[in-house]
Write a structure and sequence with these properties.
Elements (H helix, E strand, L loop, with lengths): L2 E8 H5 L9 E7 L2 H4 L10 E5 L5 E6 H8 L4 H4 L9 E2 L1 H8 L1 H4 L2 H22 L5 H20 L9 H5 L6 H14 L13 H14 L3
Parallel strand pairs: 2-4
Antiparallel strand pairs: 1-2, 1-5, 3-4
Length: 217
């Protein structure tokens, strides 16, 4: 049987950008028994799940092995799970996972992954304007800001400090909106970085090895 080691509310509720109609999305990390992972019938389909509720709420989960592989690639959605302000579930193994965040962050990974993610949001807004979803512009600026924070400080606050500034984007004229988004995205590539050049893959591998030893069955 799998064990959930970490779970948090994600999305707009975690960012402080929710409104009355916002969905409640959750993400969890679970550990599968080592005998299953090493067994004949283990497959990638067992490594993740996604359940969409009747009201649009999403509950997504990743097995710890897959999760660690993805954070080593600096996946923005999964990186921020290590920096949540609150957790619904966080056991001792989950705490160890959160403590590993300094080992997975590195300059090139954060710059490339976050830039690509933010740029894609910007391009989508331009393609769909004026029929775009306003939250895409907010998401672009938020993910860009998160990238600057990670690069310049090695940490980030998932919950935005001034949500009103993000909602103010909804009312900007097109040229001003594009200027703000463009500046936000491009700043990812020019801000300073305190992060190392490479992740500490050895430390990550050792952590996973210890987890596998602890969850034999």
């Amino acid at each position: 049987m799998t064990k959930t080691i970490l779970q948090a509310v994600t999305g707009s509720h975690a960012y402080g950008l929710n409104h009355a109609a916002s969905d409640i999305d959750k993400m969890s990390i679970f550990v599968a028994p080592t005998v299953d992972v090493a067994g004949l019938h283990w497959a990638s389909k067992h490594e993740s799940f996604s359940d969409a509720g009747p009201t649009g709420d999403d509950n997504t989960g990743h097995e710890i092995g897959k999760y660690l592989r993805l954070v080593l690639k600096s996946n923005p959605t999964l990186i921020e799970l290590m920096f949540m302000n609150d957790y619904e579930i966080l056991d001792e193994t989950g705490q160890g996972l959160v403590a590993l965040r300094d080992k997975v962050l590195y300059t090139e990974g954060i710059r490339n992954a976050y830039y690509g993610y933010a740029k894609a949001q910007f391009e989508r807004v331009k393609r769909e304007y004026p029929n775009h979803k306003p939250k895409m512009a907010r998401h672009c600026v938020r993910i860009s800001t998160q990238a600057w924070e990670l690069l310049e400080t090695g940490s980030t606050n998932v919950k935005v400090i001034h949500p009103d500034l993000y909602f103010a984007l909804d009312d900007l004229p097109q040229n001003e909106l594009y200027a703000v988004m463009d500046h936000s995205v491009e700043s990812i590539n020019i801000c300073n970085s305190v992060l190392p050049d490479k992740p500490d893959v050895r430390a990550v591998a050792e952590f996973l090895k210890n987890v596998r030893r602890s969850y034999i069955e």
